[in-house]
Amino acid sequence: MSGTGDSQPSTLKSYANSGIAAVQGAVGSLTGNPVDQRQAEDKSAHAESERDASHVAAKAGPFNLSSSGAATIDNKDRRDGKSNQIIGSGKEFVGNTIGSDSLKREGRDQNTEGQGQEAAGQLKDFAEGAADRVTGTIGAAASSLTGNTQAQSDFENQHDKGKTSQRSVEAEAQK
């Protein structure tokens, strides 16, 4: 599957490599073999960097791109929520500037509404992303077993888009 292959960073693969490194390190400690211990340290460091890389997401406006290479766009609630926050902040600023309490209040209300709208959109994107990742993983595995390479590729793309949606929400939440 492209989302978990050697060329793509994968969180799941990084955890597996961490486990292998732990076993290799234990063997090295028991035998006193410095080569095994060094290989375990190298594998552990590689697993950590792969785990970090699998969480990379870039955002340009409503467009998202993750380490999987898949691109997505924020759902409508997220986009409209951000827009309402910007417009609301502008109204609040103008209301403060000209001394209009009603415009200031209207702006504050619109900003608050936009925050809720954006949060609802983030929840939708995250949930849909999780569903796409699960469906994509299972579908790709089943397609691989049946030898249907086109379906396998389609399911891998679904997985990758789901990962991108989730990473986008996670990146915003960490701000």
From TrEMBL:
Organism superkingdom: Eukaryota
Transmembrane segments: none
Alphabetical list of SUPFAM superfamilies matching this protein: Hypothetical protein YjbJ (SSF69047)
Location of the region described as Disordered in the Swiss-Prot/TrEMBL record: 28-128, 142-175
Record InterPro entries: YjbJ_sf (IPR036629)
Amino acid composition bias (Basic and acidic residues), ranges on this chain: 38-54, 102-111, 156-175
Regions of compositional bias (Polar residues) in chain numbering: 143-155
Name the UniProt record assigns to this protein: Uncharacterized protein
Provenance organism: Tuber aestivum
